Amino acid sequence: MSDIAIRGVRKSYGRIETVHGLDLAFGAGEFVVILGPSGCGKSTLLRMIAGLESITAGEIAIGGRVVNRLEPRERGCAMVFQNYALYPHMTVAENIGYALKVAGVPKAERLRRIAEVGRSIGLDGLLDRRPAQLSGGQRQRVAMGRAIIREPKVFLFDEPLSNLDATLRVQMRIEIRRLHDRQGVTSVFVTHDQTEAMTLADRLVVLNAGRVEQVGTPEEVYHRPASRFVAGFVGSPPMNVVDATAAGPDTVTFGGLQLTVPPHGLERGARLAVGFRPEDAVPTAQAAPDGPVAAIDLVEDLGALRLLRGRLGGADVVVQTAAGTRHGRGPLPLQIAPSAIHLFDAETGLRLAPRAVRAAAA
Amino acid sequence: MIERTPLVNLLTHLVLVGGLLVLLLPVYVVVVAASHDLVAVNQVPMPLLPGHHLWENLAVAWQKGNFRNVMLTSVIVAGLVAAGKVGLSAISAYSIVYFDYRLRMVFFWIIFATLMLPLEVRIVPTYAVAANALEPFQALFDLSGLSVTLPRWNLLNSYSGLVLPLVATATGTFLYRQFFMTIPDELAEAAKMDGAGAFRFFKDVILPLSVTNMAALGTIMFVYAWNQYLWPLLVVTDQNYATASMELGRLVPSAYGEAPVWNTAMAGTLIVMAPPLAVVVVLQRWFVRGLVAVEK
Amino acid sequence: MQKRATFRNLWLASAFIAPQLLLVFVFFYWPTAQAAYWAVTLEPAFGGGNQFVGLENFRAVFADANYWASVGASLLFAVGCTAVAVGAALVLALFADRGLRGHRLYRFTFFLPYAVPAAAVGLTFRFIFSPDAGLLAGINHVVPGLWNPALDGNDAFVLVLLGQSWKMIGYNFVFLLAALQNLPRTTIEAAAMDGAGVLRRMWDLQVPLLTPTLFFLLMVNITDSFVDSFALIDVTTHGGPARATMLMVYKIYLDGFESKDYSLAAAQSMVLMALIIGLTVIQFRVVERRVHYR
Ligand SMILES: Nc1ncnc2c1ncn2[C@@H]1O[C@H](COP(=O)(O)OP(=O)(O)O)[C@@H](O)[C@H]1O
Ligand SMILES: [Mg+2]
Question: Which residues form the ABC transmembrane type-1 domain (chain B) (predicted)?
Fold first, then answer.
């Protein structure tokens, strides 16, 4: 179990820089999830930690030791790949035990540990099979077993669940988290799936285009997104974000509508983006004068809840209501509590903190 | 797909059966001719069914063509070429694909370009090299002014001479390169994470995964080497190193006008074509796969 | 075309590439350089080092009507063999691909000729086409003297052409069938839904989609007819009668090893080499530009 420090790390391929100076610290035993859209540099970061990719600038330390120049085998990390990367010609047992074989662990000891790991991840009867004879979920387990058997200081996961079907994905997700809770090994888990990220993480790192957007617990990231990007990426369905203009220190307008927000000390005429979660927009019987009215054109009934889709102030919005509500197509007056409203700078996309909070922090 | 096309089906069968007959006819004619006595084989029109003298003729051809020695030599040469090729191209392709050094692409092109230099077009100077395989190095030393004298290494009338030039070709290297490119990067990365180095990865992962390719390459190289004619003709003057394919030419008078002893000549032909045919019949799958893969 | 995961062990990399580089140098590049050297020099009659003569050897080669005859024969041979071997293989592959009863047998049999040694092909065809025994001798019974490859250049040419084609049909068949089976089934099915019949689909769909493979085979067959025909000629016609089957390769061999005129042979080698390099370059250019429909 080791902590990981990432200081000013950059990565360039040729002249193109894809990771732009990351500074991150992961605590020992922490489960960190790196979340971001495809191509944002998640894998690159993970592979730099693993030693599969050279570090262009900056340094990475694992357990206090700078590893920039160490080979993968010297870093004490184990990795689970998206496509599992099992050795097709080896049996499950050979796959799991290969690292020990390379390390020169005597055969008897090796077999004992393979059996032990096999039991712990539910591969008991399958040790003599080849990867081709396994189902997707079983292959995934083998990949896990191969990582576990080395008793690494750090687990690295690169989208390990994305090749599984929906049911298995949830099941393996739970197993991975339980495994972590049992063993307490520092884990870095890369994914583009925000549900996976929210459910697994002690701490989330949201990455976008090679830069960190936000670091925080899932709760922080969900309730206080640091940027318009995070707001739009985390949550399912994601936060509604509408372009707006400040009409006073605590009012904004968009599309002829008005909305009261907590005091942000807004300058009149400033351009902003207003965000609110689908569950924070509450349909009301009576619209406030100039209050928001969405034009609903599609209703999705998910059983446990209903999603009402439509337009509001020139933007697409989603409103989430409980099962059993009967709002249909047509105009829908909404009530949004000022405390549930997030404001972002139109230029930078950064979150605008309410006055009160800033005062309290100061 | 449900299709009722009786006429086209009839045509299909006609074309295919026709093709089969035309393609097999020459081999059939060889068998028929090899199974008659001299009088019968020279009849016009020739007999259309096999006779009773096949073993007799085979025995005579076997004696006349010295096939006991010659077949053994051919098996050894073809086996060595196949094995050499399988091993040599595996390692050179591994070097080109799995390492990142500056000359990598230069080497790739050096090897690649040899595809444009078939043996037949550089036959005269290659023959000169065979007389002393170290001559190129001697010449380089002489050019550079170093007074080093290398021993002579004569490849004429030797297995090395029959085998090495055939092993040098680039085809196998490309087969492997092609195959290595299809192996996912993650496999090498997983091996690295497991602590394996370059050699370990080659031995434990790449070689076992290449078995199919090796079988395919080995099969086509065996046939290719067996069928070589011009090169053995040049480097072999000693009967002990004569190969089956080149020996065939001696079963018939070289002047085209003279009539050969056809029944034994055809028996010899049968003997010479049997091993490569047997190999491709038995290893059909590998042969076809190798053929297609080599040329990609 | 570069692997993401590479190793750094340069010793191993060098050790693995060295053997092939050495062989390639000794048996390919050195002889080629040697041929180039001989092509521009002459060995004096009374010993001593080679003398540089510029393009003299080439001039001698090009001034020789026999040389141009061999070029002509080679080109005709190339075109003829390629047309016969690719054309026949295409028809067979298209029909075999239909997968009617027996298609496994065809698939298994059609490529067999390619495994037969060229020398054996030569002897076989020499017998089949012999004027006084064998399969075709019957013709001479009906019309005496009509068929005699030993005396008639055209007859001899047909003989070697058919021999080479017979061998290559199997090779071409393998590639065309593989390519046909790689075509997306759904495309064929879509055409069937559009009402195109079997033959129509072959002509409108499968043949055009095979263009890349056909082009590749065109190049291979031409190259092969240039270089691989040696054994065939050597056990049958020896380039005769009256030089009718004197292909370029065979002439190089005769000039080099029978007449011992290395310079003349080398100059011809260079020309043939240029031809083959040209063909390869064309092939790559076109493949680069992708005749491929994918
Ligand atoms: N070997 C490479 N060469 C050039 N660019 C690369 C290479 N690997 C990744 N990239 C680029 O780096 C960026 C980040 O890639 P990656 O880390 O794989 O993204 P992801 O977040 O989807 O895992 C992408 O834009 C990708 O195109
Ligand atoms: Mg990725």
Answer: 71-283
